[in-house]
Amino acid sequence: MDALAAVLRQAGEPLSLERVEVLPPGPGEVQIRIEAAGVCHSDLHVMKGDLPMKTPIIPGHEGAGVVEAIGAGVTTVEPGDHVIPIWRMSCGRCEYCLGGRPALCDVGTQMRFTGLMPDGLTRFRDASGGPVLHYAGVSTFSQRSTMPEGAVVKIPKDVSFEHAALIGCGVITGFGAVVHAAAVPAGSTVAVFGCGGIGLNIVQSARLAGALQIIAVDPVPLKLDYARRLGATDFVLSGENDPVAAVKDLTGGLGVDFGFEAVGLPDVVEQAYDATRKGGTCVVVGIAPAEKRARININALVYAEKTLKGSIYGSTRPRIELLRLIELHRAGRIELDALLTRTYPLTQINEAYAALERGEVARSLVLPWGR
Protein backbone atom coordinates (compact mmCIF):
# COMPACT_ATOMS: atom_id res chain seq x y z
CA MET A 1 0.00 0.00 0.00
CA ASP A 2 1.36 3.44 -0.82
CA ALA A 3 1.32 6.69 1.16
CA LEU A 4 2.52 10.27 1.02
CA ALA A 5 5.42 10.80 3.40
CA ALA A 6 7.88 13.49 4.42
CA VAL A 7 11.32 12.00 3.80
CA LEU A 8 14.63 13.33 5.09
CA ARG A 9 17.14 12.62 2.33
CA GLN A 10 20.04 14.50 3.89
CA ALA A 11 20.47 16.36 7.17
CA GLY A 12 20.27 20.11 6.75
CA GLU A 13 17.94 19.91 3.76
CA PRO A 14 14.14 20.40 3.72
CA LEU A 15 11.93 17.35 4.02
CA SER A 16 10.95 15.87 0.66
CA LEU A 17 7.30 14.95 0.00
CA GLU A 18 7.32 11.54 -1.68
CA ARG A 19 5.07 8.61 -2.41
CA VAL A 20 6.40 5.58 -0.58
CA GLU A 21 5.37 1.95 -0.45
CA VAL A 22 4.33 0.82 3.02
CA LEU A 23 4.84 -2.92 3.35
CA PRO A 24 2.03 -4.91 5.02
CA PRO A 25 2.45 -5.94 8.65
CA GLY A 26 4.27 -9.17 9.33
CA PRO A 27 3.83 -11.36 12.40
CA GLY A 28 3.46 -9.28 15.53
CA GLU A 29 3.07 -6.03 13.54
CA VAL A 30 0.34 -3.52 12.78
CA GLN A 31 -0.25 -0.98 10.03
CA ILE A 32 -1.55 2.41 11.11
CA ARG A 33 -3.28 5.16 9.17
CA ILE A 34 -1.77 8.26 10.78
CA GLU A 35 -4.41 10.93 11.40
CA ALA A 36 -2.37 13.52 13.35
CA ALA A 37 1.35 13.96 14.00
CA GLY A 38 3.13 16.36 16.33
CA VAL A 39 5.71 18.89 15.21
CA CYS A 40 8.42 18.40 17.82
CA HIS A 41 11.98 19.64 18.34
CA SER A 42 13.27 16.07 18.64
CA ASP A 43 12.63 15.51 14.93
CA LEU A 44 14.16 18.89 14.16
CA HIS A 45 17.42 17.80 15.79
CA VAL A 46 17.56 14.89 13.34
CA MET A 47 16.60 17.09 10.38
CA LYS A 48 19.37 19.57 11.20
CA GLY A 49 21.95 16.88 11.87
CA ASP A 50 22.33 17.59 15.59
CA LEU A 51 21.33 13.99 16.25
CA PRO A 52 22.95 11.97 13.46
CA MET A 53 20.73 9.36 11.81
CA LYS A 54 21.14 7.32 8.67
CA THR A 55 19.08 8.51 5.71
CA PRO A 56 16.75 8.38 3.90
CA ILE A 57 14.42 8.33 6.86
CA ILE A 58 10.82 9.33 7.61
CA PRO A 59 10.75 11.43 10.81
CA GLY A 60 7.82 11.89 13.18
CA HIS A 61 7.35 10.24 16.56
CA GLU A 62 4.32 11.94 18.12
CA GLY A 63 0.97 10.98 16.68
CA ALA A 64 -2.32 9.12 16.65
CA GLY A 65 -4.19 7.04 14.12
CA VAL A 66 -6.33 4.05 13.19
CA VAL A 67 -5.26 0.42 12.84
CA GLU A 68 -5.77 -0.60 9.21
CA ALA A 69 -4.27 -4.10 9.26
CA ILE A 70 -2.64 -6.54 11.67
CA GLY A 71 -0.17 -9.35 11.24
CA ALA A 72 -0.32 -12.89 12.58
CA GLY A 73 -0.31 -13.23 16.33
CA VAL A 74 -1.46 -9.69 17.12
CA THR A 75 -3.92 -9.76 20.03
CA THR A 76 -4.06 -6.31 21.66
CA VAL A 77 -5.55 -4.36 18.72
CA GLU A 78 -7.68 -5.05 15.66
CA PRO A 79 -8.52 -3.10 12.49
CA GLY A 80 -10.55 0.00 13.27
CA ASP A 81 -9.02 0.56 16.71
CA HIS A 82 -7.69 4.02 17.52
CA VAL A 83 -4.14 4.09 18.84
CA ILE A 84 -1.25 6.25 19.99
CA PRO A 85 2.18 5.11 18.77
CA ILE A 86 4.84 4.57 21.43
CA TRP A 87 8.02 6.14 20.11
CA ARG A 88 10.24 4.21 22.52
CA MET A 89 9.05 0.63 22.17
CA SER A 90 10.01 -1.82 24.91
CA CYS A 91 10.28 -5.60 25.02
CA GLY A 92 8.44 -6.08 28.32
CA ARG A 93 10.92 -8.69 29.52
CA CYS A 94 14.29 -7.05 30.26
CA GLU A 95 15.42 -5.64 33.61
CA TYR A 96 14.42 -2.10 32.61
CA CYS A 97 10.93 -3.12 31.55
CA LEU A 98 10.36 -5.30 34.58
CA GLY A 99 11.75 -2.54 36.79
CA GLY A 100 9.18 -0.02 35.52
CA ARG A 101 11.59 1.92 33.26
CA PRO A 102 10.57 0.75 29.74
CA ALA A 103 11.95 3.84 27.97
CA LEU A 104 15.44 2.51 28.74
CA CYS A 105 14.78 -0.83 27.04
CA ASP A 106 17.51 -1.82 24.59
CA VAL A 107 14.96 -2.78 21.91
CA GLY A 108 13.73 0.80 21.64
CA THR A 109 17.28 2.12 21.75
CA GLN A 110 18.35 -0.14 18.89
CA MET A 111 15.37 0.89 16.75
CA ARG A 112 16.18 4.54 17.43
CA PHE A 113 19.80 4.27 16.28
CA THR A 114 19.38 1.88 13.34
CA GLY A 115 16.08 3.13 11.90
CA LEU A 116 15.06 -0.50 11.43
CA MET A 117 12.43 -2.83 12.84
CA PRO A 118 13.53 -5.45 15.41
CA ASP A 119 14.16 -7.96 12.59
CA GLY A 120 16.74 -5.59 11.06
CA LEU A 121 14.59 -4.60 8.08
CA THR A 122 12.48 -1.60 7.07
CA ARG A 123 8.83 -1.52 6.03
CA PHE A 124 9.17 1.49 3.69
CA ARG A 125 10.29 1.59 0.05
CA ASP A 126 10.76 4.67 -2.13
CA ALA A 127 9.72 5.06 -5.77
CA SER A 128 12.88 3.31 -6.97
CA GLY A 129 12.34 0.40 -4.59
CA GLY A 130 15.08 1.46 -2.21
CA PRO A 131 14.68 1.16 1.56
CA VAL A 132 13.56 4.13 3.65
CA LEU A 133 14.26 4.04 7.38
CA HIS A 134 11.93 4.48 10.34
CA TYR A 135 12.38 7.19 12.98
CA ALA A 136 11.82 6.04 16.57
CA GLY A 137 10.15 2.96 15.16
CA VAL A 138 6.95 4.80 14.19
CA SER A 139 7.59 7.46 11.47
CA THR A 140 4.39 9.43 11.95
CA PHE A 141 5.19 11.83 9.09
CA SER A 142 3.80 9.24 6.70
CA GLN A 143 0.11 8.79 5.95
CA ARG A 144 0.61 5.12 6.79
CA SER A 145 3.19 3.35 8.89
CA THR A 146 3.89 -0.25 9.82
CA MET A 147 5.28 -0.87 13.31
CA PRO A 148 5.47 -3.56 16.00
CA GLU A 149 2.34 -4.31 18.01
CA GLY A 150 4.29 -3.27 21.09
CA ALA A 151 4.62 0.24 19.65
CA VAL A 152 0.91 1.10 19.90
CA VAL A 153 -1.56 1.70 22.71
CA LYS A 154 -5.29 1.32 22.09
CA ILE A 155 -7.30 4.39 23.14
CA PRO A 156 -11.04 5.17 23.37
CA LYS A 157 -12.58 6.16 20.04
CA ASP A 158 -14.17 9.29 21.45
CA VAL A 159 -10.74 10.90 22.00
CA SER A 160 -9.90 13.23 19.12
CA PHE A 161 -6.80 12.40 17.12
CA GLU A 162 -5.47 15.90 17.79
CA HIS A 163 -5.74 15.47 21.55
CA ALA A 164 -4.29 11.96 21.38
CA ALA A 165 -1.29 13.13 19.36
CA LEU A 166 -0.52 15.88 21.86
CA ILE A 167 -0.64 13.40 24.72
CA GLY A 168 1.66 10.99 22.87
CA CYS A 169 4.87 12.93 23.48
CA GLY A 170 4.66 16.51 24.76
CA VAL A 171 2.11 15.92 27.50
CA ILE A 172 3.40 12.58 28.77
CA THR A 173 7.01 13.80 28.79
CA GLY A 174 6.24 16.98 30.72
CA PHE A 175 3.83 15.27 33.09
CA GLY A 176 6.20 12.42 33.82
CA ALA A 177 9.15 14.73 34.42
CA VAL A 178 7.17 16.40 37.21
CA VAL A 179 5.32 13.42 38.67
CA HIS A 180 7.84 10.62 38.21
CA ALA A 181 11.34 11.97 37.62
CA ALA A 182 11.10 14.82 40.16
CA ALA A 183 8.12 13.71 42.28
CA VAL A 184 7.25 17.36 42.94
CA PRO A 185 5.25 17.64 46.20
CA ALA A 186 2.52 20.20 46.89
CA GLY A 187 3.83 23.55 48.09
CA SER A 188 7.09 23.37 46.10
CA THR A 189 8.80 26.07 44.07
CA VAL A 190 9.53 25.25 40.44
CA ALA A 191 11.36 26.93 37.54
CA VAL A 192 10.85 25.76 33.96
CA PHE A 193 13.60 26.79 31.54
CA GLY A 194 12.11 26.63 28.06
CA CYS A 195 8.38 26.96 27.44
CA GLY A 196 7.91 25.02 24.22
CA GLY A 197 5.73 21.95 23.89
CA ILE A 198 7.51 20.03 26.67
CA GLY A 199 8.09 22.98 28.99
CA LEU A 200 4.47 24.06 28.88
CA ASN A 201 3.42 20.60 29.98
CA ILE A 202 5.91 20.76 32.82
CA VAL A 203 4.25 24.04 33.82
CA GLN A 204 0.73 22.61 33.82
CA SER A 205 1.85 19.41 35.52
CA ALA A 206 3.57 21.39 38.28
CA ARG A 207 0.27 23.21 38.76
CA LEU A 208 -1.51 19.86 38.91
CA ALA A 209 1.00 18.65 41.50
CA GLY A 210 0.20 21.65 43.71
CA ALA A 211 3.41 23.66 43.27
CA LEU A 212 3.11 26.96 45.11
CA GLN A 213 5.31 28.95 42.72
CA ILE A 214 5.93 28.12 39.05
CA ILE A 215 8.47 30.36 37.30
CA ALA A 216 8.43 30.23 33.49
CA VAL A 217 11.73 31.16 31.81
CA ASP A 218 11.98 31.76 28.05
CA PRO A 219 13.45 34.37 25.66
CA VAL A 220 10.20 34.61 23.65
CA PRO A 221 7.43 36.76 25.22
CA LEU A 222 4.71 34.75 23.46
CA LYS A 223 5.88 31.57 25.19
CA LEU A 224 5.48 33.24 28.56
CA ASP A 225 1.90 34.13 27.62
CA TYR A 226 1.24 30.46 26.89
CA ALA A 227 2.81 29.53 30.23
CA ARG A 228 0.54 32.00 32.04
CA ARG A 229 -2.54 30.27 30.65
CA LEU A 230 -1.29 26.90 31.86
CA GLY A 231 -0.52 27.90 35.42
CA ALA A 232 2.80 29.76 35.66
CA THR A 233 2.85 32.29 38.53
CA ASP A 234 6.02 34.22 37.65
CA PHE A 235 7.86 34.99 34.44
CA VAL A 236 11.46 35.63 33.38
CA LEU A 237 12.24 36.90 29.88
CA SER A 238 15.67 35.31 29.65
CA GLY A 239 16.76 37.27 26.59
CA GLU A 240 16.67 40.48 28.63
CA ASN A 241 17.62 39.23 32.12
CA ASP A 242 20.10 36.99 33.87
CA PRO A 243 17.71 34.06 34.36
CA VAL A 244 19.54 32.60 37.36
CA ALA A 245 19.61 35.91 39.22
CA ALA A 246 15.98 36.56 38.29
CA VAL A 247 14.83 33.17 39.60
CA LYS A 248 16.73 33.68 42.84
CA ASP A 249 15.24 37.17 43.23
CA LEU A 250 11.79 35.64 42.90
CA THR A 251 12.56 33.05 45.57
CA GLY A 252 14.10 35.23 48.26
CA GLY A 253 17.63 34.47 47.11
CA LEU A 254 17.29 30.72 47.66
CA GLY A 255 16.55 29.30 44.22
CA VAL A 256 13.81 26.80 43.47
CA ASP A 257 13.15 23.36 44.89
CA PHE A 258 12.93 21.95 41.36
CA GLY A 259 14.53 23.26 38.18
CA PHE A 260 13.54 21.80 34.81
CA GLU A 261 15.47 22.22 31.56
CA ALA A 262 13.30 21.68 28.48
CA VAL A 263 15.41 23.19 25.70
CA GLY A 264 18.42 20.98 25.08
CA LEU A 265 21.17 23.61 25.29
CA PRO A 266 24.19 23.27 27.59
CA ASP A 267 24.03 26.84 28.90
CA VAL A 268 20.35 26.41 29.75
CA VAL A 269 21.12 23.18 31.60
CA GLU A 270 23.70 25.13 33.61
CA GLN A 271 21.17 27.89 34.32
CA ALA A 272 18.50 25.45 35.50
CA TYR A 273 21.03 23.74 37.77
CA ASP A 274 22.41 27.01 39.15
CA ALA A 275 18.88 28.28 39.83
CA THR A 276 18.10 25.20 41.95
CA ARG A 277 18.46 25.67 45.70
CA LYS A 278 20.47 23.65 48.21
CA GLY A 279 19.08 20.14 48.44
CA GLY A 280 17.02 20.74 45.32
CA THR A 281 16.63 18.69 42.15
CA CYS A 282 17.35 19.70 38.56
CA VAL A 283 15.74 17.54 35.86
CA VAL A 284 17.01 17.73 32.27
CA VAL A 285 14.40 16.86 29.65
CA GLY A 286 15.63 18.72 26.55
CA ILE A 287 17.51 16.81 23.83
CA ALA A 288 20.87 18.40 22.97
CA PRO A 289 23.16 17.93 19.95
CA ALA A 290 25.09 14.71 20.50
CA GLU A 291 28.50 16.32 21.10
CA LYS A 292 27.41 18.97 23.59
CA ARG A 293 28.49 19.02 27.24
CA ALA A 294 27.31 21.15 30.17
CA ARG A 295 29.66 22.54 32.84
CA ILE A 296 28.45 21.77 36.35
CA ASN A 297 30.06 23.18 39.48
CA ILE A 298 31.09 19.97 41.24
CA ASN A 299 31.56 21.64 44.62
CA ALA A 300 28.04 23.00 44.45
CA LEU A 301 26.82 19.50 43.62
CA VAL A 302 28.55 18.13 46.74
CA TYR A 303 28.28 20.91 49.29
CA ALA A 304 24.74 21.89 48.33
CA GLU A 305 23.62 18.27 47.96
CA LYS A 306 21.82 19.00 44.72
CA THR A 307 20.47 16.26 42.50
CA LEU A 308 20.96 16.41 38.72
CA LYS A 309 19.08 13.85 36.67
CA GLY A 310 17.72 13.20 33.22
CA SER A 311 14.28 12.03 32.11
CA ILE A 312 13.24 10.41 28.84
CA TYR A 313 9.57 9.89 27.95
CA GLY A 314 8.78 11.39 31.35
CA SER A 315 10.30 8.36 33.12
CA THR A 316 6.87 6.78 32.65
CA ARG A 317 5.30 3.48 31.65
CA PRO A 318 3.60 4.75 28.47
CA ARG A 319 1.13 1.87 28.14
CA ILE A 320 -0.35 2.90 31.49
CA GLU A 321 0.33 6.63 31.57
CA LEU A 322 -1.15 7.52 28.17
CA LEU A 323 -4.56 6.20 29.23
CA ARG A 324 -4.24 7.89 32.62
CA LEU A 325 -3.59 11.24 30.92
CA ILE A 326 -6.68 10.82 28.76
CA GLU A 327 -8.73 10.43 31.93
CA LEU A 328 -7.06 13.44 33.56
CA HIS A 329 -8.00 15.50 30.51
CA ARG A 330 -11.58 14.27 30.68
CA ALA A 331 -11.67 15.29 34.33
CA GLY A 332 -10.57 18.82 33.36
CA ARG A 333 -7.20 18.55 35.09
CA ILE A 334 -4.97 18.43 31.99
CA GLU A 335 -5.42 21.18 29.38
CA LEU A 336 -4.92 20.24 25.74
CA ASP A 337 -6.67 22.85 23.60
CA ALA A 338 -4.46 25.65 24.96
CA LEU A 339 -1.40 23.72 23.73
CA LEU A 340 -2.46 23.49 20.09
CA THR A 341 -1.59 26.65 18.19
CA ARG A 342 -1.85 25.54 14.55
CA THR A 343 -2.47 22.59 12.27
CA TYR A 344 -0.87 22.05 8.86
CA PRO A 345 -1.41 19.64 5.96
CA LEU A 346 1.50 17.27 5.40
CA THR A 347 2.41 19.25 2.29
CA GLN A 348 3.29 22.22 4.52
CA ILE A 349 5.48 20.34 6.98
CA ASN A 350 8.56 22.46 6.23
CA GLU A 351 6.54 25.61 6.95
CA ALA A 352 5.45 24.02 10.23
CA TYR A 353 9.05 23.51 11.29
CA ALA A 354 10.00 27.03 10.22
CA ALA A 355 7.28 28.38 12.54
CA LEU A 356 8.55 26.14 15.34
CA GLU A 357 12.08 27.51 14.95
CA ARG A 358 10.76 31.08 15.02
CA GLY A 359 9.03 30.39 18.34
CA GLU A 360 5.56 31.14 17.00
CA VAL A 361 3.75 28.10 18.37
CA ALA A 362 3.14 26.27 21.62
CA ARG A 363 2.55 23.02 19.76
CA SER A 364 1.44 22.39 16.20
CA LEU A 365 0.21 19.30 14.41
CA VAL A 366 0.47 17.92 10.91
CA LEU A 367 -2.70 16.29 9.58
CA PRO A 368 -1.44 13.83 6.93
CA TRP A 369 -4.81 13.46 5.23
CA GLY A 370 -5.90 17.09 5.67
CA ARG A 371 -8.97 18.30 7.52
Description:
- The protein is α/β, with parallel strands linked by helices and 371 residues long.
- It folds into 2 domains: 2-158 and 339-367, Medium-chain alcohol dehydrogenases, catalytic domain (Quinone Oxidoreductase, Chain A, domain 1, Alpha-Beta Complex); 171-312, NAD(P)-binding Rossmann-like Domain (Rossmann fold, 3-Layer(aba) Sandwich).
- 30% of the residues lie in helices and 26% in strands.
- The chain has helices at residues 41-48, 95-98, 106-114, 161-182, 197-209, 221-229, 243-250, 266-274, 298-303, 318-330, 349-357; strands spanning 2-7, 16-22, 29-39, 57-58, 63-70, 82-85, 124-125, 131-134, 144-148, 152-155, 189-193, 213-218, 234-237, 256-261, 276-284, 307-310, 340-345, 363-367.
- It is globular.
- It starts with a strand and ends with a strand.
State mean pLDDT (0 to 100 scale).
Answer: 96
**CATH topology (fold) name of the largest domain:** Quinone Oxidoreductase, Chain A, domain 1
Name given to the CATH architecture of the largest domain: Alpha-Beta Complex
User: What's the CATH first level of the largest domain?
Assistant: Alpha Beta
The SS-based structural class is: alpha/beta
Helical stretch tally: 11
Described by the principal axes of the CA atoms, the overall outline is globular
What is the share of helical residues?
Answer: 25-40%
End-to-end CA span: 22 Å
Please give the largest β-sheet.
7 strands, mixed
Strand content: 25-35%
